[in-house]
Amino acid sequence: MFNKNKGYSGYSMSERAVDAYDNGEKPWSKWNKREIIESVLDINNNLNENLLKKIKLLNLKNEFLTRSSWHHTSKFFNETDFYSLNEEWIELITNEDLQNIIDKQKAEEKRAIDILQQDLQALMVYKKYTNYKTDNGFIKSIKNGKYNLEKLQKLKQKQEEKEAKKRKEYLLSLVEFSGYKSKNAYLEAIKNGKLNVKTLEKIRDTKQIEKEAKSISSMIDHLKIYIKHLEIVENCNNSNTEAYAKSKAYIDNNFKYDERVNGKNSLKVKEYIKELEQEKNRLNIKLKNL
Question: How distant is the alpha carbon of residue 261 from its chain centre?
């Protein structure tokens, strides 16, 4: 039977991969900045360590590593590329070359920042769909990866759907003032411009004000009757009369839950009537201005 582990060091990598590690080769991801700098200085000690430290890890890898072999790794026999130091190039490179790498790196960083700033400006229109109140907080959330264009577009779509639903509910609250019996026909009429929302709002407001004014007028009429009975009780010298008993019964059975009336004398109730009349006049003025 075929032995799958033949030529393998346990289940992690092939024996050749182990040998490659011993020879200074390893996968791209295994190389770190400190190792590369130390190895480069071992090969070319004329190079300035401080300049090397200014170079980003990715640029160090691109500049000083070269693909040297591939080997099987992991229990799934993955084919993994191995990299080693490009010694011939390292021996030739100068501090001037390092400075050129750093200058190029700075230029790329500036370009990346410029692009990011342009992208951020384009994304600022989406801030209103998030919980961020300040531009700085919103920009920070983009830079740390919390939001990207796709997520922001989804937030916008969700908010627009929510607003559209709210708008539809509001429009349907006006259907009773439109004369339409079918909600779908009503919404289609608004969409096509056959119905004007402002006109419907005016009809609604008119009916509401008229209803409120009518209620106040009714209240005033009842209070005027109430005052007559109140004055009879207040001015009656004999509580045993039929008039007194009738008026007292009326008072006891009306407005007993209204704190503006219950227990108040006729002067206080008259003041209340004046306030109601002023409110009625205010509503009439409001009605004329619609």
Answer: 50
95 contacts 45 by C-beta, under 8 angstroms: no
What is the pLDDT confidence band of residue 76, given thresholds at 50, 70 and 90? low
Q: Give the CA distances from residue 104 to residues 41, 54, 98, in Å, rounded to whole numbers and listed in that order.
A: 22, 12, 10
If we measure between CA atoms, which residue out of 239, 235, 258 comes closest to residue 249?
A: 239
| DSSP characters over 6-20 | TTEETTTEEHHHHHH
Tell me which amino acid residue 143 is.
Answer: K
What's the rounded Cα separation, in Å, for the pair 20 and 42? 20
Which residue is associated with the tokens 């009773």?
A: 176
pTM of whole model > 0.70? no
User: Two tokens at 139?
Assistant: 């920009």
- Give the model's confidence band at 4: pLDDT under 50 very low, under 70 low, under 90 confident, else very high: very low
